[in-house]
Backbone:
């Protein structure tokens, strides 16, 4: 599995001058997506709806609204 491309604007394009601790989205060679974001499992786990579940190896990650909105045009429809 490898990173194929960034999805959306780079952190610098979104106004980050340091490039540190910036959320990001990447498309992987197998078609999945990888997300860099703030780990918030402890904060949000109890907020999950009753029909949602998280495996022990999964984490809830938060990205900014701007990160996802600016990635929208790069996300394939299918």
Residues:
């Amino acid at each position: 599995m490898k990173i194929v491309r960034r999805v959306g604007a780079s952190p610098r394009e979104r106004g980050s001058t340091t490039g540190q601790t910036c959320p990001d989205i990447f498309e992987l060679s197998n078609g999945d997506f990888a997300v860099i974001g703030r780990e918030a499992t402890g904060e949000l786990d109890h907020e999950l709806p009753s029909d949602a579940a998280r495996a022990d190896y999964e984490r809830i990650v938060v990205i900014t609204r701007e990160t996802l909105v600016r990635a929208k045009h790069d996300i394939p429809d299918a």
User: Anything to note?
Assistant: Strands lie at 3-6, 24-28, 33-36, 38-39, 61-62. The radius of gyration is 14 Å.
